[in-house]
Amino acid sequence: MTIKRSAAILGLVLATIAGNALAADPIRIGVPVGLSGANSVVAPGVVQASELAVAEINARGGVLGRPLELVVADDGSGAAGAQKAFDSLIFQKKVDVLISMETSAARNAALPIVARGKVPYIYTSFYEGRSCSPYMYVNAWVPEQQVPPIVDYFAGELKAKKYFLIGSDYAFGRGMLAFTKAYIGKTGGSVVGEEYLPMDGTDWTAIISKVKASGADALVTSTAGGAPNVTLTKQLRAAGVNLPYGNLAVDEGTAKGMGGDATGIFISASYVTGIESPANKAFLAAMQAKFGGELKTPNDLTVPQYEAIYAYKAAVEKAGSAKADDVLKALGSVAVDGPRGTIAMSAQHHAPLTMYLGQVQPDGSVKVISSFKDVTPGAQCPDLKS
Amino acid sequence: MLTLALDIATTAAILFIVSAGLLIVFGVMKIINFAHGALITAGAYAALVGMRLGLPAWMAPFLAFMVGGLLGMAIESVVVRRLYRRPLDAILATWGLGIVLGQAVIVGFGREVQFVAAPVAGTIGLGGTDYSLYRLLLVAAALAIGIGFTFVLNGTRLGLSTRAVILNETLAEGLGINAVFVRFLTFGIGSGLGAAAGALITPLASVDPNMGIPWLINAFMLVMVSGSALSTLAVACLVLGGMQVVISTFVSPILGGLAIAVLAAIALRLRPEGFARA
Amino acid sequence: MPDLLTPRRRIALAALAAGLLVVVAPWIVDTYTASILARAFFVAIAALTVDVLWGYSGVLTFGQSAFFGIGAYALAMTFTHVGFDAGGIALAFGLAVIVAGLVAALVGWLSFYHGSTPLYASVVSLVLPIVLVQLIYAGGETTGSSSGLVGFQTFDLDLETWFRLAGLATVAVAAAGYLLLHSDAGRILAALRDNEARCSYIGINVERLRLGILVVCAIVAALAGLGHAALGGVAAPENASFVFGTQLVIMVALGGRGTLLGAVLGALGIELASAYLSGSLPFIWELIVGIAFVAVIVLFPAGLIGALRRLIPGDRADAAPRLQTAAPLPRADRDMMVEARGVTRQFGSLAVLNGVSFSARRGELVSLVGPNGAGKTTLIRCLADGLERTGGEISIVGRPIGRLPPHRLVAFGLGRKFQAASVFNTLTVADCLRIARSRRDPMSWFDRSPVLSLPQAARQVIEGGGLGDRLGDVAGDLSHGLKQALELAMVLALEPDVVLLDEPTAGLTRAERSAFGAILTDLVRREGLCVLLVEHDLDFVREISSRIIVLHQGQIALDGTVEQVVNAPLVHEIYTGGHVPTAETAS
């Protein structure tokens, strides 16, 4: 521990020295995130992950001899805020690249501005898939990668045949469950109920009564994050529903906060803190050293952000410049080692990922039940070359 | 069928708990308190603080009532008092206060979703089906609130003064009733009830800075339909809450979520004279 | 010296200057500010419609965001699913206008009906965006659900062009709005805000007018939303949301309601400030806006513009128009003016009127007397509003009133003066009178007329009552007596055959009262009016009446000449609280 701390301090000192040496002409990374609005819970963690990556890279001499500089902007978790944030980052702050975890509404609102500014954009949030732009790369999962581990496990190990699906009525909820439904069909199971509540809805009474009456033997949910997800879980438990329960929208931190109600939930993710790899252990230690008591538990939304900055570094170094055209060409072909393993955004601007099936334990931790190596995202953007 | 009946009863009870405070304020002051949603949130955070202090769970609603009551009295004396003659402006000012309160909660408690444990957990067997015990407890809470305030209005001196102010304020003033004080107290009680509602529903839900807002619109519509009597509010909660459950169960929960707002608006249009109104 | 800067020229100059500024600005401000402002212009146009609805006509609306969203989605959905070509563009515009218009008509029908309250209209405006956003969420691929629609081909204009287009559109909407709202006819909106009941009783179809205003505002907001989506290349649910609807209200409130300029400044200011500040302090920013909003509502309801106006007092009053005498209308060729048969009015089980029958002829001044609660005011209401009574028949100038609302009965020749002086408090005396004349002299939507034609009787009340040289004064500032005179003049401006007066002399001095009596008797004698008067003061009644009807417990206790009634023992019993055995007619 003391050695690591000394190393971190040394790193900071080096960063200062390197910063001075490389003072001229930084490469600016724009990070539009939802500091307010729906994403405001996860946004501080995203910023922390970005800060760690930039500090580490600068401590080792930057990229092509130039230091990295973070420019964070609030996108309000929505379209209007994203338009302002991207305008500001691209045209006022003149960033070289945008790397961000955002809502789909914010991403969609931003894409026309990104196209106008012709800036590379790495999107680091899992999402419902099939968002395509020559300027955008994605290094997080899509339904094709997340759903199969849970459904395969339910159908194979737990012999589930009849499924009940519950979601929030928005693009992610509907998109995930549409894919889930189709996939369940492929495994020979059937969907006995599929219900949605408005996105801010938190009263699941009628739906839960239907679950209990349906005779389903497994449950898969995909709600909006935060309150809808938590209220659904609590109300399911209060109503005595104890079916195998796959939750497509819960992360480790939230599961821990829910206490006993979360016990037994199955999750599928490309990152859990329990990944047994040197890269992940080093990452967690560095996060702990840098942020201490302020640390937000790293999760499936913040770790891709950290890795994306390294992917950008690799692309710039491969291209030999930070010019947008060159970087965009290189981004699809570089691979980086990070906490989640070796990742390349080589599949139609998306990335094959190792997925983990985990189950929440009574103490709130997530136990990895099995892992699935290099799950392909499938044909996300057939019209894009590379 | 029994489950449906229980769903309707418990949903109506929750709606009643959430709207009672708004109704009391509207009944006496003819003002819609749009900070009600933020007060519900404040009540949930009061329950959270209570839990952290190690208070027993049954005390949470009472703690929340005190917190909400104090907030309400502060709001009344600083802002609302100046707006009695401008009811539409009162809506706007209280909405603004709701924003301020919500942001203050964020600054004080952070943005993340937090949790309060339910005082009773699990289900109870009822006629062949098992049902959430805490939801059934809320029916009792709703009855307690309804009966309690009916008693206060009909059986106490304060209640008498309040009803006098509702009926004819000028006359009440002439009889030596301090209408300003009655309104001050009413707003405090209504706000306290809102906060207590937050503490009561939060074991079913979560604690987050925006949790009260989705309740506001439904509570508002129910109060508009009910006018100024707790008894009509109870009927409105049963009928419209029942419609919500029935539509959610047999048609779609999305339409169910809109049921109260849309049906109440149409009901008001078709039978405006059928409901007591401002 | 003639005033070269008439209000119309002043607004034309201001619009020209603002337009020039908009054209020049892209060369001065940086790209970032320009792109924020370009979008903010479309928001400002939506804010202008909120100001017209709320600031001018008094309907607090949270729902203009819904129409903005309808416009945005009309464009995004058409360009996504139909395509971006001439036909697609025409379809997008057509859909925006038609859908917004139809939805506004539906909302207007829901919100505005005889007897609706402003609070109810706000309620409906609140429900609208909530329902619409839910539809967008449920729309799947068609609407893009929560992610919105993006990636469609749209107009390929550079930012400077967009800025100028949006800016000039804002200036044009604001200037046109100003001209319309400050024209003679535009003052009706302020009249609606001040006193809707008075509008009905001078024959204005309040519900239809409000509906029309809403439809126009909805279409303008939809076109603003369409522009916003075309510029940004995206339509998102939040464009239609209730939260955006409240933000529009906040912008108007901070800028200054009822000024148009305030709406524009509020929208541009908040959009700019939030773009620059919210990134660095997202939560504090919302806290600041919230506190500022509450403070402005409580302390400075007139907003920024209102506060500036107080600092810079200027002569803003329009020149008062010249009075003219209108050519008299041919009088109805009838003698029987009012006939009531078996009129009843029940509130639940309580009968306030119970079988009231009487009639009144041309040239009669009939006083309705009776103790409190006898049903006098209720009877007046039943005569003036076909929806009031529970049973019985009433004819005015020979035409049965059926279930017609007040504004239709004005066309029958009915005028009603309320108990408390009911005028338009923020309008000038001249505007009050002009609006009262609107049925006879159609008003211009573009201009202010320099003359004001009034019938002889109304002119007499104005000039005799001391209002002749106060035509430019704001009605709310008049003394109680002058307000009563103004209201009477407004009623007479309708050139009615039947005038209903509810305690017109309450609160007047003795001198004012006898002057008033003289005017009334003169009108009845010379113009042949039929006047029905509710009055408490028996001495006054005795001086001026030609006939007296005594109401007691919802029935006519006595109907006869002044002498018959004044000397009847029954009247003394009623007024001293004695028992009345049976109703009788002494005429």
Beta-strand portion of chain B reads: under 5%
Query: How would you name the oligomeric state of the polypeptide chains in this document?
Result: heterotrimer
Secondary-structure element series of chain A? HEHEHEHEEHEHEHEHEHEHHHEEEE
For the terminal residues of chain B, how far apart are their CA atoms? 38 Å
Name of the CATH architecture of chain B: Orthogonal Bundle
Over the alpha carbons, how many angstroms does the gyration radius of chain B reach? Answer: 18 Å
Cα(first) to Cα(last) distance of chain A is: 44 Å
Task: Write the H/E string of chain B, N to C.
Answer: HHHHEEHHHHHHH
Number of domains as seen in the coordinates of chain B: 1
CATH architecture of the largest domain in chain A: 3-Layer(aba) Sandwich
Counted beta strands of chain B: 2
Uncertain regions spanning at least 5 consecutive residues of chain A: 13-22
Low-pLDDT runs of 5+ residues of chain B are: none
Shape of chain B: globular
| CATH fold-level name of the largest domain in chain A | Rossmann fold
CATH topology of chain B: ABC transporter involved in vitamin B12 uptake, BtuC
Shape of chain A: globular
Largest sheet of chain B: 2 strands, antiparallel
Which CATH class of chain B? Mainly Alpha
Q: CATH homologous superfamily of the largest domain in chain A - what is it? A: Response regulator
Describe the structure.
The complex is a heterotrimer of chains A (386), B (278) and C (587). Chain A is an alpha/beta fold and 386 residues long. Chain A has twelve helices and 14 strands. Chain A has two domains: 200 residues, 3-Layer(aba) Sandwich (Rossmann fold); 126 residues, Response regulator (Rossmann fold, 3-Layer(aba) Sandwich), CATH 3.40.50.2300. In chain A, strands 2-1-3-4-5 form a five-stranded parallel β-sheet, with helices on both faces. In chain A, strands 7-6-8-9 form a four-stranded parallel β-sheet, with helices on both faces. In chain A, a hairpin with a 5-residue loop joins strand 13 and strand 14. The longest helix of chain A is centred in the N-terminal third of the chain and has 20 residues. Chain A is globular, with a radius of gyration of 21 Å. Chain B is globular. Chain B is mostly helical. The relative contact order of chain B is 0.21. Chain B is built from eleven helices and two strands. Chain C has 587 residues and is of the alpha/beta class. In chain C, a hairpin with a 2-residue loop joins strand 13 and strand 14. The longest helix of chain C has 27 residues. Chains A and B meet through strand 7, helix 7, helix 8 and helix 9 of A and helix 1, strand 2, helix 5, helix 10 and helix 11 of B.
